[in-house]
Amino acid sequence: SSTSARSSQHSSILSIVSPDTTISDPLRKRPAGSRPESDFSANQHFFPLRNDIYPCPACGEIFQKPNLLEQHQAIKHAVSELIDGDSGKNIVRIIFKTGWPDKAKSPNILRILKIHSSPKILTRFEEYRESVKLKAARNGGVWRRDERCIADGNELLRFHCATFLCDLGRNGNSSICNHQYCSVCGIIRCGFSPKMDGISTLSTSWRAHVAIPEEIEEEFKFMHVRRAMLVCRVIAGRVGCDHENVDKEDPGFDSVVGRGGEAHTRLDEEDELLVFSPRAVLPCFVIVYTV
């Protein structure tokens, strides 16, 4: 079934982003400037050469304060390309291409980048999960899907399409830019921004792709605008189905099915999920592609 397939895909993604599964991998030759597959954000305890020296394990640059090292890693080593032979590259590719209709042009993947979120962003995500779990537990499991909320915050795998302007991930480039109109780099650096109508996440990459107007690349060609797909872990929490009647300030719901959804349809089959809190969405991969 589609639900079990999605669950399997979600488990596969979790195994890729978990630091435990990558640290033990043997070292392989990687493109110049790329980051090792192990997630630096997981290694929060650094052992300085002296009390005031903190070297970057990726490039060797020296910092005198741990927060400066963390800031350096968040910008200069924000992503790393999954090369052929990397665990998970094929899984991400399959998940990305699933759901594209036969009549549509097949997407051409240029590169798949793993996002190395800062400890701050990871902590924010996990703290939000715990708040959703506690809220569901206080309600005593009387609402639908409360069991999932209590277990893991009702975590789902979703897609979000965004635009970017830089050479993100090209030729082993692991850094992100600071251009104010480069949406992808902004999301990687600081997470998603709050939105009045919620942050839109889609069940398939095809739906996320068509959510951005087809002509946007042509219209902003002078800015070298391109699109990329973000594969995200989302804490959906308690989901409301009536967009018009859900109060975003009401703690009863954490997210809502988009306007096209039917109240009687399973969430896993819905196209759009609007999440109210930016802390609920953790981007894990960036797929740079063309159609």
Written description of the protein model:
The structure is a single chain. The protein has nine helices and eleven strands. It has a single domain, classed as Phosphoenolpyruvate Carboxykinase, domain 3. The chain is globular and about 55 Å long. The strands form three sheets. The chain has a five-stranded antiparallel sheet with strand order 3-4-11-7-5, sandwiched between helices. A four-stranded mixed sheet has the order 6-10-9-8. It is an alpha+beta fold. Residues about 20-40 and about 260-265 have low confidence and may be disordered. Helices cover about 30% and strands about 20% of the residues. The protein starts with a helix and ends with a strand. Strand 1 (about 55) and strand 2 form a beta hairpin. This is C2H2-type domain-containing protein. It comes from Davidia involucrata (Dove tree). Keywords: Metal-binding, Zinc, Zinc-finger. GO terms for molecular function: zinc ion binding. InterPro entries: Znf_C2H2_type (IPR013087).
